[in-house]
Amino acid sequence: MYQPPKHQREVDSLQAAIRGERDAGRRPLFRPPPPMLPRSGNPLDERLAEELEFLRRRISALGGALASDPMLVARNAAALQDIDLIAQTLGHLATIVAAADKSAAADRISLAELKARLKRKPLMSIVP
């Protein structure tokens, strides 16, 4: 009959203890992700969201390519961080555009500055 090695038995024992804590009601370390928001259903919203997501992927790839050059990173670290922030912003905007409830989608944004800009009152009316 197969007998696992000692180190494997120790790992199995630790995993069983962790599972036992979870089953006994201990809270998990991470919150489950929120449920997906319903999609807009508007074809133009969907196309705009796809374009924003496409731009996010392109700018992320550009940032990755530039970050592979150590000299460029040393001289332009702040600019590379800006590229990453732009990519994150585009991703959040794509999610909002695609959502049926745009306000709820904006509430889920993890970039505090972007969320504040989107949730603030208008500076002035754009309607004459």
Task: Record keyword descriptors for this entry.
67% helix, single chain, 0% strand, mainly alpha, 128 residues
Residue share in β-strands = under 5%
Helix content: 55-70%
The rounded distance between the terminal residues' Cα atoms is 84 Å
> Taking Cα atoms only, what radius of gyration do you get, to the nearest Å?
23 Å
Question: Element order, helices and strands?
Answer: HHHHH
Mean pLDDT over all positions: 90
Model regions low in confidence, pLDDT < 50 over at least 5 residues: none
Q: How many helical stretches?
A: 5
Supply the helix-strand structural class. Answer: mainly alpha
Number of strands: 0
What is the overall shape?
extended
Largest sheet: none
Structure description:
Helix content is 67%, strand content 0%. It is mainly α and 128 residues long. The chain has a domain at 38-111. The longest helix has 29 residues, at 70-98. The chain is extended. 10% of the residues are buried. The mean pLDDT is 90.
How is this fold's topology laid out?
Elements: H1 6-23, H2 43-67, H3 70-98, H4 102-107, H5 112-119
